[in-house]
Design a protein that fits this description.
disordered C terminus; four-stranded mixed β-sheet; 2 domains
Length: 435
């Protein structure tokens, strides 16, 4: 694959022979499919790498984004004999001695670990998330491959330092291996929702049985968020369930600045408790904690975007490091065109908005901008929105997630205490790193 790309690049650079657009599309899609198949076969970190690559709309061709966005974090469970060894090593005793009972069959399994139900000697129902025995070694190999690929492929987009993106990916994947860190994230987000009356709950971490490779948390009796038969049986409304989820993520992303960035159906359970719908959020391996200063800048950009004010939105993009001063005026007509297309719709047109189409248009808009660098924190925002959009479509195809979430988003932003970005032009500085 690499040699093919090098050949096409060398042919264009030295012999001025260009590859046609439709040929590029076929080449990109063919190799993206091969990468997808490789990730499915190798599992572990390669699935995670593929998921992260699919979010890099600023550097990856559209066919790669489309193909790798289909990667799902599902793997066959590891045999109990290996999991038992991990538990014995981490907790110091045989699992059957530590707990009143423990299910030897996994409740769920993913790239880095799997979940088993158990009950403590005190009678509390719990779940244990346990790492696969060889995952640390496999991830080291996968990250070495990633670092090597980053160096090789940087020749094609020299204005962007891909090593920065590579380090961000490596850090994100390495952090996800630390279950103690994941437990802390769960406690942090759970604390932010203490007293919240919007129907979102988090598991409670039990530190007694939590280590670097094992997480112990309370068991939530619930059903997968896409179990619509059970939802109807309990008399719960799909639109209401979707509203609970969107408002919960709005709070995390805009008010708290700490959010679970992997809201897919496998990480959300629902039930009816005391006559009210409740959604439980699971899996805090992919959590983003935004630095306060960056969070403030991001809120400024969101406010400028939702208010359709180019004079607020463009300086906010500069403050975030997305654009340099020299690029602001060049981007203005492109942004104006995007705003005019999406913010002057009739009520019916707004209701029928397709987030997938919007995402494609955003990518197309980014492609028109010569010099742009999207910080990884914003990439995670985009990926989270994409997952929420897919989830919204599954839960209620007639719903428009923007129309549902916008009132709560605006309400949240209006209560935030931040200074508006400067609207005046400042002396030109060197532009941000290229695309």
């Amino acid at each position: 694959m690499y040699l093919h790309y090098v050949f096409l690049w060398y042919r264009r650079k030295w012999f001025r022979i260009r590859t046609r657009r439709h040929e590029w599309t076929q080449i990109h899609r063919g190799y993206a499919k091969k990468f997808y198949a490789m990730a499915i076969k190798l599992k572990g970190g390669m699935i995670k790498v593929g998921q992260l690559i699919s979010a890099r709309v600023d550097v990856m061709p559209k066919p790669w984004i489309e193909e790798l966005s289909l990667l799902q974090d599902k793997v066959p469970p590891t045999e109990w004999s290996y999991i038992r060894t991990t538990l014995l090593s981490e907790l110091g005793k045989e699992p059957d001695e530590l707990f009143d009972w423990i299910d030897h069959n996994a409740l769920a399994a993913a790239s880095f670990g799997q979940v088993h139900r158990a009950r403590t000697r005190e009678g509390d129902d719990i779940v244990l998330k346990i790492q696969h025995p060889d995952i640390e070694f496999k991830l080291k190999v996968d990250l070495w491959m990633l670092r090597t690929a980053v160096k090789l492929f940087n020749i094609f987009i020299p204005r962007t330092d891909l090593s920065v993106i590579g380090r961000e990916m490596s850090q994100a994947l390495s952090t996800e291996l630390s279950y103690e860190q994941e437990a802390t994230y769960c406690e942090t987000i759970g604390g932010n929702f203490k007293g919240y009356a919007g129907g979102i709950v988090m598991p409670v971490i039990i530190r007694k049985y939590t280590t670097r490779r094992v997480i112990c948390m309370t068991y939530f009796e619930g059903y997968k968020i896409t179990n619509f038969e059970k939802m109807a049986e309990l008399g719960l409304d799909r639109r209401e369930m979707l509203t609970i989820i969107l408002n919960g993520w709005t709070k995390m992303m805009y008010k708290d600045g700490v959010f679970q960035s992997d809201p897919h159906p496998g990480n959300l359970l629902f039930n009816k408790i005391d006559g009210k719908p409740v959604v439980c959020v699971l899996d805090f391996g992919q959590v983003k904690v935004l630095p306060k200063e960056f969070h403030q800048k991001l809120l400024q950009a969101v406010f400028g975007f939702l208010s359709r004010d180019e004079n607020k939105f463009l300086p906010a993009l500069k403050n975030l490091g997305v654009l340099g001063d020299a690029d602001l005026e060049a981007v203005r007509p492109i942004l104006s065109d995007f705003f005019s297309h999406y913010f002057h719709l009739s009520p019916k047109e707004a209701k029928d908005l397709d987030f997938k189409k919007i995402r494609e248009d955003v990518i197309a808009t980014i492609d028109k901008i010569e010099r742009i660098t999207i910080p990884n924190d914003i990439i995670l925002y985009g990926r989270t929105f994409s997952l929420l959009s897919g989830l919204a479509t599954q839960i209620d195809k007639t719903a428009n997630m923007f129309m549902i979430a916008k009132p709560y988003i605006m309400q949240t932003l209006m209560t935030m205490n931040f200074q508006p970005p400067p609207t005046q032009q400042t002396p030109a500085q060197p532009a941000a790193a290229g695309k």
